Amino acid sequence: MAYYNSEVIEQVRQLDVYSYLLNYEPDELVKVSRDTYCTKSHDSLKISNGMWYWFSRGIGGKSAIDYLIAVKDFSFIQAVETILNYMKKVPIKTCGVIKKKEESSKLILPERNQNNDKVIRYLIDRGIDKDIILECIDKGYIYEDQKHNVIFIGYDYQNNPRYAMCRATNSSRFMNDVYGSHKAFSFRLNSLEPNCSVHLFESAIDLLSYATLLKLNHREWYNYNLLSLAGVYQPSAKMEDSKIPLALNYFLNQNPNIKKIYLHLDNDQAGRTASLTLKTVLPKCYEIIDNPVPVGKDVNDFLCRKIDKMNHKEKER
After folding, report:
1. Of the candidates 152, 154, 134, which has an alpha carbon nearest to the alpha carbon of residue 248?
2. pTM higher than the cut 0.85
3. Is residue 256 domain-resident?
4. First vs last Cα of the chain: how many Å apart?
5. Lowest mean pLDDT among 52-66, 106-120, 248-262
6. Is 60 in contact with 51 (CB distance < 8 Å)?
7. Is there a single domain that holds both residue 286 and residue 245?
8. Residue closest to 93 by CA, chosen among 12, 15, 8, 35
9. What is the pLDDT at residue 100?
10. CA-CA distance, 27 to 9, in Å (whole number)?
11. pLDDT of 167-221, one tens digit each?
12. ∠ CA(78), CA(79), CA(84), 5° rounding?
């Protein structure tokens, strides 16, 4: 069996599926719209914004390796060998149009404030544990911008910031994705230890609230995979035609060890519909556990109620 060192494998992994098809299988690439393609063999396999997703199978990814393994049924070694052989014969051509598009959509992070004081106070007021907040700030997951908004950052697996959400710390309730954000890389906390489960939330606030609840229950919150969807999940009118959220799809492709998916979506109609849809469209190889909070609208609401109850009991003593 052939052996390739980590440097060669990393080089091959950098090749995205669009560039692979454009250079080595151009007849397979079919333009659907201005920035979306499908393949000649599979019209339900769409390629857009550097990612690919095969809707009829509910799988997707970014790299050409993932494509060859999932779509063409290659082994990992076969996929690496195929790409290396192509690269030796025909070097990758630079595509000016794609390069320009990538540059124009580059993530532009808001300028940082000199300190994070208002963000810390805001998150503590939302019930989130101070030590968790400080650790997220220390790791670069959260910071305060010059307008005193809280910025939640999502990274790819090369530790590059690819997503950021801006949320006001005052009463305006303003929130928005930062320009150039890609929802596939939304805010998340990865388990420090191997873990076959992932917990899903609508927002970063709910995610941090759940981490706080774990800590209050004397559990190691840092050994849980916690993933936010960067907003309310919007199913299609026909439930079975709905897409798997980009953030979840990317996470599952990068973490093939995942077996269980816990849904902690909101206790409203949108959240309940979203949970039902995900249970319908996610592949059957996953165990899906719908686990909304027992009372309150969402995880943060439940956390605040719990803290109020704890404080009330403390005062009675």
Report:
1. 154
2. no
3. yes
4. 69
5. 52-66
6. yes
7. yes
8. 15
9. 40
10. 26
11. 999 987 788 888 888 888 999 999 999 999 999 999 999 999 999 999 999 999 9
12. 100
10 shares a domain with 151: no
Domain extent at residue 11: 6-104
Is residue 225 pLDDT above 50, yes or no? yes
Total tally of structural domains belonging to the chain: 2
For residue 250, give every residue at least 6 positions away whose Cβ sits within 8 Å of its Cβ, in sequence order, or none. Answer: 51, 61, 62, 184, 185
Instruction: List the CATH number of the domain containing 57.
Output: 3.90.580.10
CATH of the domain at 176: 3.40.1360.10
Positive or negative: CA dihedral 308, 312, 313, 315: positive
**Residue 160 sits in the same domain as residue 291:** yes
Note whether 83 and 156 are same-domain residues.
no
Three-state secondary structure readout of 32-98: EECCEEEECCCCCEEEECCEEEECCCCEEECEHHHHHHHHCCCCHHHHHHHHHHHHHHCCCCCCHHH
Name the residue among 312, 307, 291 with its Cα closest to residue 126. 307
Percent of the chain whose pLDDT exceeds 70:
93
Phi, psi of 105 (to 5 degrees): -105, 20
